[in-house]
# Entry
Amino acid sequence: MEKEAKITVHPSFEIGEISPRLFSTFLEPIGTMVNGTMYNPKHPTADEQGFRKDVIEALKSTDMPAIRLPGGNFVSAWDWKDSIGPKEQRKVHLDPAWYQYITNEVGHDEYLQWAEKVEAEPMYTINLGTGGIRDAMDIVEYTNHEGGSWWSDLRKKNGHEKPYGVKVWYLGNEMDGPWQIGSWDKDPRGYGVLANETSKVMKWIDPTIETAVCASSAIFMDHYPEWEETVLEQCYDSVDYLSMHHYHSAPPGDIKALLGGSLYYEEFIDTEAALCDVIAAKRRSPKKMMLSFDEYGAMIRPNAELHPGYGVYNMTRAHYRFDPDRKYVLHDPDQMPDRKHPGGDMLQMLAMVSIQMAFLRHADRVKIACMTGGLGALCSSDHDHVWRSASYYALSQLMEYAKGTSMQTSVECETYDMPGYAIDDTSQYRGKENVPYVDSASAWDRENGRLNLFVLNRNEESEYSLTVDVRGFEGYRFVKQFEMYTDDLEASSSFDNPSLVLPKEKEDILFADGRLTTSLKPLSWNVLCFEKEEE
# Structure
């Protein structure tokens, strides 16, 4: 028997303005992501700098707003000054974060010039592990100052006459993590003071920039959220964003846990927003700190052996083990391995959009979000080709239709309970009750008279008869419903077969007197579009 669900959206209940940066991506030179996907001078499409033009053109065809680069853990040992100027004079370094050689063929200028080519705003992470205030001053001067100083004139000499104009700067990466080179795990006050002084002087060099300070790297850290409370007490007045990361894991076969993971993101957001507001109150500050969720993802991971008594988070022990057999790797851009992720295209896409809808529901505080696999979602690739997966279509739809103001969506539907589970010592989740099978968010582009509703059916077995009540939006008419669905959850697109899961316009939809009646297939992604009729 078909089940029923109802969604109500009303113009009186706004959440906040949606930032275009909410659908940004993240780039770090791990494996062949840079040396292979981004850069391969031997590729048939390589341009004069060695960048793959097939990747560039594929990304240019999207509306990707911004990209956070060049990392990631890698930046905490990276000296950007060794990556500029003539390539034959650049230094090759070891990257202890990922046990790889960094040749610096792709350096500071190349990262920013590649962002120009794909027409996305670069958001830059600086080294506050082994780097410090002097390096931060120099990189902003080199990157953003008009000219007349040594560093800005060196940029011109290196071939970029105009300033790059980078606006968002991240003050290190995951600086609380014991895995981080130069970690501030044991000294949050010290990191907060450094972040304050660094942000202050960076803004003295370029007062137009914004800075983001690191929060705890995971909700599982045993010092969360006290660590960032201490940090913010030192630097609240000088920074603009709290930088947050989370990777949600679910065991194989547990689709409900995978697609219910967005609840843990919302819990994280609510906690950090409240913490920021407490610091603002303590400092008598009128500023409301915004959030940057600049690394996130969802994945299927098999359960690992647990070690009772180790505590909630065992990453410290893991990163104080030193493997004498581990070797450094030089990644050859001409030797890209095939990548196959478990779960097929559809589950990856559904997990992604469930998180992005959570960000939309918190658009008043979350102003930046960088999907870690976002480049692959927008442009799947192998050694030779590029193509589009299911994630490309869903992410492109969010970029196109999630504009304006995020609106509250009231959902009435069947629910399920999600038992707590532990993937390993580092990823342990409390159970959740009354998780709605139908997940939703909405965006009202008031200026252009458009209302768009995003709907995910988390149910693996049941179709829902859906009623949508938009009577409060007087004069709006229903335009179309996009539906993405497949019977084969293991299907993965490829260059030879890129059209396994495509959005299709749904038919047989009733709309009258501000009420719409449609249906939601099991494990489907849906976009419902309304427009105001011309008067």
